[in-house]
Design a protein that fits this description.
The protein is of the alpha/beta class. The protein has nine helices and twelve strands. Helices cover about 35% and strands about 20% of the residues. A hairpin with a 2-residue loop joins strand 9 and strand 10. Helix 5 packs across helix 7 and helix 6 crosses helix 7. The two termini are about 30 Å apart.
Length: about 325
């Protein structure tokens, strides 16, 4: 092949990771930039183009890229646009596919970031051989990729599968999508911080390691570290988070009846602190005929690789002139 590689790009709410991938799914080289660095979308695109070009030059891949696959929040597979992403600083409709194609001069295919992770998991990870599963990504927000009968579910408008924006608590926490009580306001990394701050306020007399950290500097890792040290409030945050996520996964199981849920992202590294209450809540809320049948698995791919590999798989299918 005169163009033996594709480029996979994963745009997250915090970081953007990109990699050169060969036809066997090997990530030849990768890099990253901060998604939040630029307030203007085109400034971000310019830095991405500059850094990716450096990676291509360093790995003798200039002129050898067949296509570019991109996973991004609220990205529409049909149009190539990012549409009103709650966890990105740029609002409105952004012509991501067209802009990248013009910048690189290479065909581009775009999908939701969680869909890209699901494709990567189905091709290279824990979902190999599965035709019915749901990928749940726990990062800055909560994403999902739904596969039924071996096909990714995109819906009529290309935007299906936003399980992070289903309502976990009616009238609950405000979400960046303009709704209230969305799953991601409770079970994302930012949701964990919100829970910790609420618990600290509600249990003012209970000592906690988290009280030593300014509220505007608290991170989900701080909550994890405190829980690992046996902090009662931090442990109760993970119990609360796992319980809500388990309830919601049981609801999702009712309408797709998947073989498994694959859990991916930073919070998945919390181990039994999250997984134990999650699994208990999940089983308790399943329909009776589903109990004991649906597995909850952790991703088998490196955190960076799943979405990059999934996005890169789209690169082999990319066609010129992505619609705007």
């Amino acid at each position: 092949m005169n163009k033996p590689y594709v480029l996979g790009i994963d745009i997250g709410g915090t970081n953007t990771v990109y990699g050169i991938v060969d036809a066997r799914g090997t990530v030849i080289a990768s890099g990253a930039i901060k998604t939040k660095k630029h307030e203007i979308f085109n400034d971000y695109i310019n830095e991405l183009h500059e850094e990716v070009t450096k990676l291509l030059v360093a790995n003798d891949a200039v002129g050898k890229i067949f296509g570019i696959g991109v996973g991004a929040p609220n990205a529409n597979f049909y149009t190539g646009n990012i549409e009103d992403a709650a966890n990105l600083q740029w609002k409105g409709v952004l012509p991501l596919g067209r802009t990248l194609e013009e910048k690189f001069g290479i065909p581009v295919a775009v999908t939701n970031d969680a869909n890209a992770a699901a494709i990567g998991e189905m091709t290279y990870g824990a979902a190999r051989g599965m035709k019915d599963f749901i990928m749940i990504t726990l990062g800055t927000g909560v994403g999902s990729g739904i596969v039924c009968g071996g096909q990714m579910i995109y819906g009529a408008d290309g935007m299906a599968g936003e399980l992070g924006h289903t309502i976990a608590r009616r009238g609950g926490r405000p979400c960046g999508c303009s709704r209230k009580g969305c799953l991601e306001t409770y079970c994302s990394a930012t949701g964990v911080v919100r829970s910790a701050l609420e618990f600290l306020d509600a249990q003012a007399s209970v000592p906690s390691l988290l009280r030593n950290i300014p509220s505007d500097e608290l991170t989900s890792k701080d909550v994890y570290d405190a829980a690992k040290a046996g902090d009662a409030i931090a442990l109760s945050v993970f119990e609360f988070t796992g319980r809500i996520l388990g309830e919601m996964l049981a609801d999702f199981a009712a309408f797709t009846s998947p073989e498994a849920f694959i859990i991916f992202g930073g919070l998945a590294k919390s181990g039994e602190m999250l997984m134990k209450p999650l699994k208990e809540s999940f089983e308790a809320n399943l329909l009776s005929y589903q109990k004991g049948k649906i597995r909850i698995l952790l991703s088998e791919l490196k955190e960076a690789d799943a979405a990059v590999l999934g996005a890169s798989a789209l690169g082999w299918e990319a066609k010129p002139s992505t619609p705007a």
